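Quick one: sequence plus S-adenosylmethionine SMILES, need structure tokens.
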Amino acid sequence: MTYTGSAHSMSEFKLSPELLKLIDAVNNRSAELTGDDGDKCIGSQLPTVNRAFEEIQRRGLPAGNQFCDWGSGLGGVCGVAALNGFKSLGIEFHHQFVVAAREIAEAQNLPITYCEGTFFVPGDETLSDKHSRMIMTYDKLAWEQTELSHQDIDVVFSYPWPGEEGFTDRVFLRHAKPGTLLVTFHGCDQLLVQRKTEDQNHLEVIDWM
Ligand SMILES: C[S@@+](CC[C@H](N)C(=O)[O-])C[C@H]1O[C@@H](n2cnc3c(N)ncnc32)[C@H](O)[C@@H]1O
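Reply:
Sure thing.
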């Protein structure tokens, strides 16, 4: 997993020692790890994620405190969520990433739960309008390892593959309860924050952060 942006680039003077330590830990592990399929994974820019989470909390946007990263990789985003006061859950398909994320969280003393498997549930593949680059097998179902379900999450995070943003939105609309925030990373220092309205088919754009 290669995290774009470094701990010591943008806004360094604004980053807390805890956040800098987390970013260093994730970067140090990323070079040595690949997923089960041999792929390296690109991670979100953590200073950007931190800026957005601070803003989300400052504005009081979440309806509750439960956060979930759909595809949590080495857990950098889950760590930033925990540092911003969320109860943090990471779901990740690749075993090596889950092991590393748990080690990083423990070393940083961050209370994060990681479940190994897919965040999709059977049937979600019908929402994809083309061959998806997301992992769409159901042999490891992450939700079976936790008492939480999609409906318990207040803030969902995702870093969709380019071109799969619509798929992410549709899966979110299918499973999230009204009021839930969807935070998506789109590269180039850009995060989109949306909210599911009472209308099952509608996402309200709140802001780019
Ligand atoms: C682009 S990385 C993002 C990592 C992290 N969320 C971040 O933004 O830094 C996407 C991650 O999703 C994982 N992934 C892909 N499909 C998945 C699935 N169906 N269930 C769980 N994790 C999945 C990949 O293994 C990878 O670690």
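The longest helix spans residues 17-30. DSSP finds five helices and nine strands in the chain.
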